[in-house]
Amino acid sequence: MDPGAGKNGPNGPDGTPGAAGTGRGILSNPTRRTLRAGEIPSTMIECVHAEQCGGCPLIGMDYAQQLTTKRARVVSAIVHYPALELLYTRQVVPGDQIVGYRGRAKLIVSPTGGIGLYGRSGNHDVIDIPNCRVLAPALAEVTTILRGLIASPPPEARGLLLPYDPHGGGVLRAIDLREVHMPGTTSLPETTTTAQGNRVGVLLTFVLQRDRVPSRDELKEAGRALRALLPRVVGIAANLHEADAPQILGPETMVLDGVPHAEDRIGPTYHVASFGSFVQVHRGQASRVHALITREIASLDMQLLIDETGTNRRQPKVLDLYGGSGAISIALSHAKNIVTMVESFAPAVQNARAAAEAQGLGKLDARVGDAADVVNSLLANNEKFDAVVMNPPRRGVSPAAREAIARLGAPLCIYVSCDPDTLARDLDHFSRLGYTSSELIPIDMIPLTEEVETVAVLKRAPPAQPRVIYEDDDVIVVEKGPHEPVENQPEYLGSLMQRCLRLPGVSNLKVVNKLDTGTSGLCIFARNEVARQLWTTALATSGRLIYLVAAKGVTPTKGAIARDLREGGRSYMARTRYRRLAVASGHSILRVIPDGHRPHQIRRHLAAIGHPVLGDERYGHVPTNRYFEEKHGLDRSFVHLIRIEIVHPRTGAKLLIESTLPGDLRASLERATGSSVIKFLEQKHALGENRASSMLPGEPASAPLPPPRPLDRGGSQPAIGPMPTDLAPPPPSYPPDSLAEPMSYASPDSFASPPSYASPPGYAQPPSYAPPGGLPSPTITEAPTEHVPELDESPRTIRHAIVSDDD
């Protein structure tokens, strides 16, 4: 570990070693040492910028506490997925350097010429960080020189170095620095040689405001002048930032001077680094990840790798998805694996091929394209692989790619993730596709921050059993996961029906309520055709399906949308009622009840009034969906069937069956709004519980439930005992909405009155929607000790047809 330098960073402002430590457990000698096996450094790191800079949020903790915090983050990401409840999270692998380690940095340039990061205040003020503790020495050296050049720019480089001011002139918005450890002979000074004999250089990218960029000739002249003043820099490029783009780097980069790319060694191999390309910022930890992947593939079952003769062990065939510049692929090729790499960025693929060939590793089979598309083409050609490696960006593996990977059927999959939330979401889906993992291996890739890299090793297993919420002699009610059809469809590997048929004592199921593939929640299966007809009729006459939905923008407090929906050339009457439960980051959390069950009814109705469902690919708002996928991991429609209310067709009992909000939607909501909205909705009992309750006609609300029948059903809650079959189904003596009469369900009375909802701290409530006077208000039937929410139709009724593209 590099235990740190003095308060002035790895080196002082003049390039000399930092001052001696000041005690209190703060190590300040810049020498490095290697941790003993299992040793976790117990040290505090001081930084003069820590109070204002937001770059190292955990710097105030002892390093051992930081690792504990990161492990807790991984554990909390998987806790809301029943299929992952047996997944063990190891202790976090510590970094051998926790300061001076960062080999890639994107730094903002302030209008006054400071170079740093946005501050902790959240107001986008740039904090200049000349004594940053985490920058690698080469990057710290270059930024120190650049500060002086920006303050007093040479005339030939002024057009490139003038800081961007939104209210004035200037063009320079940010700099992107990449450290490279180059094998072989270079023109760099001998002092830059590492212990392994590599020469250390820097690729420097200036991020410029596109609409203020000088001519290409002027840029190239400035690049040549600056490179002469920056001896550590081996190449300079300019990247053009789009005016309103949230990302620092824009899509266009031009090389101004020096090399267009450079060799970069990690462990025993090197790959080709280019301007702006992805790299793990901690070189030592990246090498550990490569070694772990190589070791797992080497431990594949020998029986799987016997060649056609039956006597010799063949080389494993590995598919490396999201391959980037080829660092993992080249490391695996060096370990005698046959590798096919997939990457969507064509220049990175070309660099990977060139690096593999230059190192005598043969011609790397590197393909350009989307991961899902390439895997599907491999399937079409009947290609087989022994292992699949996935190292996706923060948004995770796409649903289509997960489905295609599972169809490929490799005995081993290794998932390298930089985001615990999207990792948990994807592992949950993989569990339904026939892959499971026994443990997670967190790695501290970015010390002093909240970020954590996690490796999961997945192996083939039977698909996870669905959780059973309720069952009797007629039906079984289970939780459906997202990205899963209810019944078999040729484009999907499996279905909820298939998983249910694996439950003990279950056969010949019939669907009662069919959910969209992207929708999660409660699904009723009948055990025979007679039961299906009974329950379908009961659902239509006395039942309600209640959904939790997130919609774009702020809807009225409550409303009803009555519109004809066209299907197959015919129009069908349909009505959807909703009530807004909360406003979260400018969007609405709704409780929705569709009257009728037309395909896509909720999604089509909400889209028609200008509030499409978040994440809805078909009817939704594309930019908003893209933002929520990139930032918050939402990769499907935010629709969950959270509650079914129905009168049992044989006993006349009032049934209430609930399913809690699934982990992927919960994580997206929490990431978008913080914990306050989640806590607010939990206090209102709006997120559901995994349970069922029943009340026979005339039975007091406080009567106990029938004794549960314990079942081993996918981690289910105890189910209610079988209903008597000798009771004739009495006709309902009340309309469907009177299911709000007393039953065993605890919910605060504030559900009955939207104006009583207070917004969580930090969220402004929009002006309430006031219905015209004289119209009926929602009614609630009060139980002795509890209240059940009612969603009555509001006066806001809109009528006209919706025609979708396929109608």
TrEMBL record:
Keywords: Methyltransferase, S-adenosyl-L-methionine, Transferase
Compositionally biased intervals (Basic and acidic residues): 784-796
PROSITE patterns for this protein: SAM_MT_RNA_M5U
Methyltransferase small domain span: 303-395
InterPro entries: PsdUridine_synth_cat_dom_sf (IPR020103), PsdUridine_synth_RsuA/RluA (IPR006145), SAM-dependent_MTases_sf (IPR029063), Small_mtfrase_dom (IPR007848), U5_MeTrfase_fam (IPR010280)
Active-site annotation: 418 (nucleophile)
Region (Disordered): 1-31, 691-807
Signal peptide: none
Binding residues annotated for S-adenosyl-L-methionine, in chain numbering: 280, 322, 343, 391
GO term, biological process aspect, one: pseudouridine synthesis
Molecular function in Gene Ontology: pseudouridine synthase activity; RNA binding; rRNA (uridine-C5-)-methyltransferase activity
Domain named Pseudouridine synthase RsuA/RluA-like: residues: 474-608
Bias (Low complexity): 8-17, 736-767
The UniProt record lists the keyword Metal-binding: no
Family: Belongs to the class I-like SAM-binding methyltransferase superfamily. RNA M5U methyltransferase family.
Entry protein name: RNA methyltransferase
Organism: Polyangium fumosum
